[in-house]
Each structure stands twice: as structure tokens, then as C-alpha cells.
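Thanks for the sequence, V.! I ran RNA polymerase, sigma 28 subunit, SigD/FliA/WhiG right away. Repeating your input here for the record:
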Amino acid sequence: MSIDLLWEKYITLRDPEARQKIILLHLPLVKHLAGRVAVKLPSFILREDLESYGVIGLMEALDKYDPAMGHSFDSYAYHRIRGAMLDEVRRQNWLPRTAWQKNQLLKNTRERLEREQGEVITNEVLAKEMGIPVEEVRQLIFNANKMYIQSLDEEVAGHDGSQMSKLELLEDTNSPDPLSIVEEKESKRLLAEAIETLSEREKLILALYYSEGLTLKEIGQVLEVSESRVCQLHSQVMKRLKKTLESMLNS
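Predicted structure:
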């Protein structure tokens, strides 16, 4: 089907299939504009993201285009697509305009000097070339690093060579760590076994102190001994438990 027939079908019937085909035909325009816009932007804004914003602009242009305006769709879409890209870039960029311009100057200066000298450029050289203090160069670099945004959908190589997204590598702090659960269960099992080696009097002291929450004075009243004696017994029990656990772990 020719492009004219597609337009006729879309304009008269708002046919979704014709709309999709028109969008596909104009994707090269989106890619072309993304390439031109990306040249003037810092590296943290990916060309793929620009293309995504551009496609949104293309669809909006298609929905709002009126042939009666007397403009060709390509001309109308050009400005809509480019505008959508730049609008999204502005939303992502929280730096003041002057700071943005300085970062651009820093980026361009570094790239030019690296091409000319064929080596990594130091902050001191950058400062001299730009006519600003070294500390200001460091601050500009710090601000640029804070702006760096990564896509969590970006794939990276895992330890075994397989590909996975960065999102899969992020730790879920709300999810329990299986290894910690196993270690906790194992620790409880060993502690229970160690407690079983104690005498009934020693088990009672631990139960009253840790389970029932009694004070040393209250435990002394239960056992009919002084508070200082309970403190001494508790200390002895803890030392014995520690020794038993160490023996279990080393066996």
C-alpha cells in the first residue's frame, strides 16, 4: 500500500493498522534526530533513550496532525520529535543552565585536548586551558558524576559469562537473605545443643533471665541465693556455653 493510501485510510477512518505503518515508516527520522541531538549531550543520556522519547513525539505528532494546516507531516513531525527529546532531557537535567554550560565546556575541552595530545588530561591542565581554578574543575567533575544515570535494563556480563540486567544485580533489602537464614537456623541449633549440656540449675538461670526477663535480684529470690551469687553463676554459665560452642564449631 502506498504512503498516500495509508494517510487516506488513517485520516478518514483512524485505522490503527495504517497508523502503525506510518509510525514504522518514520522511525528513520527519529533515529536521525536522536543522532544529531545526542552529539550535544553528556554521555549519561543514551541515544536509545532519546529514540524512545522521539517515538512518543512521533505518535503525538501523528495524533495532532491536520493536513489542512498546509504543512507536510515530515516537517510537522520533525519539530515534534525533536521537541519531545529536548523536553525529556530538560526534565532529567536538574542543574542550573550556567552549570550545564560549564559542564559542556569541560567535556568539550577534555575531548579536544585528548585528541590533540593523545593522552589522559589532568585536572590541572584542564583548569589552565579553561582559565579557572583547579578546585572548580574538581567541583564540575563531581557535579557531572552525580548526574550520571544508568539504565537498570542495561545488560552486563555475570560471573559465569551470562548476560543479565543491572536490575537483577541489585540487592532487595526487603527480601531475607537465604544464607543468613541458614546461618541463623544453624546457630540456633548449635546453641540449643550447647544448652542441653548444662545442668538443670544452669538452664533455669538462663530461662529466668532471658525468657522470663527476671532481674538478677529476682532470680536470687527464686534460687534463694544472693544477687551477687546469681551474677557469678550467670557469668560461669555464659563462659561454659561459649567454650562448648567453640568446641562444636571447631569439630
